[in-house]
Design goal:
- The protein has about 400 residues and is α/β, with parallel strands linked by helices.
- The protein has 2 domains: about 160 residues, Rossmann fold; about 220 residues, Rossmann fold (3-Layer(aba) Sandwich), CATH 3.40.50.1100.
- It is about 40% helix and about 20% strand.
- The chain has 16 helices and 14 strands.
- The chain has a 6-stranded mixed β-sheet, with helices on both faces.
- The protein is globular.
- The chain binds pyridoxal-5'-phosphate.
- The site of pyridoxal-5'-phosphate (PLP) has 19 residues, from helix 11 and helix 15.
- Pyridoxal-5'-phosphate (PLP) binds next to helix 11 and helix 15.
């Protein structure tokens, strides 16, 4: 059984490239070139150099002693929170900006919800001296002022999306429109394992460095490369894809995908796509998404802006449908409790997104002494305002 993408860009029934005709030349150029570029020596040399000296990789794999004894398991934390810009997203933007350069692109566009992917994109554009335009819903611009300021400080232009609910999906639509209008000089850096083929596979490969490191780090620390479980939160699914990638074919390693239940899966205020979603097409790929009977997208809700997406990447839809991965949903309240707990028991303040993965420890069944790797996708500085509201 294999979980790799096929020639047509599908993982089982999910994936593909369902795009307007006018986008075809752009996506096709990327599709024809991305694997050759990623596998070339010159790309690998620059990518590995920047990951090491700019991003700060390898990130540590930390044995969380106090947390482990509470759960009677061996819990290891993959510290993506220590990456430059505070989360895993920069692994992808570093890779994509190098690909854009190899394709001769001079102008970069991106979409962002909470602003984390926008910041990671603005960062690499500054690094490479490329023009950067970030589309962001007008409502999100209001809600995420610090990240808007960061993007501007880094030299990016932040363009408000004023249609629809003025959030992430509207920003994505604006970015796609821009790409159609500027096909020759522009590369669109998508921030997760979503979008038309080859994006899900390309982004998964760029994030795969996470599980590549976990394997040798675990071997170094325990003598064994494969853990009993890998746990990661899923918005679009890029940090989970990176953490799962080199374990996909290791059936002895359980993969746990943790979604945001918001106020609860039965409240209409949720983002738990694997529970509430059905098959459909969103942003160019066939996957699971939250939609009504007419195929209209249902607005997702989560306290964490990074998990507040109405779909999941096609790889995750396939992993969950084929039962290779187990999905767990975690409410706002459970995530907040886990964030406070991790801060006090290990001295690490996680991002709200990441806190969902920690809350899943209470819902997973495992045996005494099992080894569990939790992908600590990002740090909590950006969420302090929210945490303060709930501090006792
Ligand atoms: C954006 C973000 C996520 C969610 O995105 P994925 O593509 O699912 O990884 C999770 N954690 C952090 C810290 C993020 O910034």
């Amino acid at each position: 059984m294999t979980y790799s993408i096929n020639e047509e860009g599908f993982y089982g029934a999910f994936g593909g490239a369902f795009i307007p005709e006018m986008l075809y030349p752009n996506v096709e150029t990327l599709r024809r070139n991305y694997l050759d570029i990623i596998q070339s020596d010159s790309f690998q040399e620059e990518y590995q150099y920047l990951l090491k000296q700019y991003v700060g990789r390898p990130t540590p794999l930390y044995f969380a002693k106090r947390l482990s004894s509470e759960f009677d398991a061996k819990i290891y934390l993959k510290r993506e929170d220590l990456c430059h810009t505070g989360a895993h997203k920069v692994n992808n933007t570093i890779g994509q900006i190098l690909i854009a350069q190899k394709l001769g692109k001079k102008r970069i566009i991106a979409e962002t919800g909470a602003g984390q992917h926008g910041v990671a994109t603005a960062t690499v554009c500054a690094l490479m001296g490329l023009e950067c335009i970030v589309y962001m819903g007008a409502v999100d611009i209001e809600r995420q002022a610090p990240n808007v300021a960061r993007m501007k400080m880094l030299g990016a232009e932040v363009r408000p999306a004023t249609s629809g609910s003025q959030t992430l999906k509207d920003a994505t639509n604006e970015a796609i429109r821009d790409w159609i209008a500027n096909p020759a000089n522009t590369h669109y850096i998508i921030g997760s394992v979503v979008g038309p083929h080859p994006y899900p596979d390309m982004v998964a490969r760029l994030q795969a460095i996470i599980s590549e490191e976990i394997r040798w780090q675990l071997k170094e620390q325990t003598g064994k490369e494969t853990p009993d479980m890998v746990v990661a939160c899923v918005g679009g699914g890029s940090n989970a894809a990176g953490a799962f990638y080199h374990f996909l074919e290791e059936e002895s390693t359980r993969l746990i995908a943790v979604e945001a239940a918001g106020l609860g899966v039965d409240t209409n205020e949720s983002a738990a796509t694997s529970v509430l979603g059905s098959k459909g097409i969103i942003h160019g790929s066939r996957t699971l998404l939250m939609q009504d009977e007419d195929g209209q997208i249902i607005e997702p809700y989560s306290i964490s802006a990074g998990l507040d997406y109405p779909g999941i990447g096609p790889l995750h839809a396939h992993l969950i449908e084929s039962k290779r991965a187990e999905a767990i949903s975690i409410t706002d309240k459970e995530a907040l409790d886990a964030a406070f707990h991790l801060s006090r028991v290990e001295g690490i303040i996680p991002a709200l997104e990441t806190a969902h993965a920690f809350a899943a420890l209470h819902k997973m069944k495992f045996n005494s002494g099992d080894s569990i790797v939790i992908n600590l996708s990002g740090r909590g500085d950006k969420d302090l305002g929210t945490y303060q509201k709930f501090m006792k």
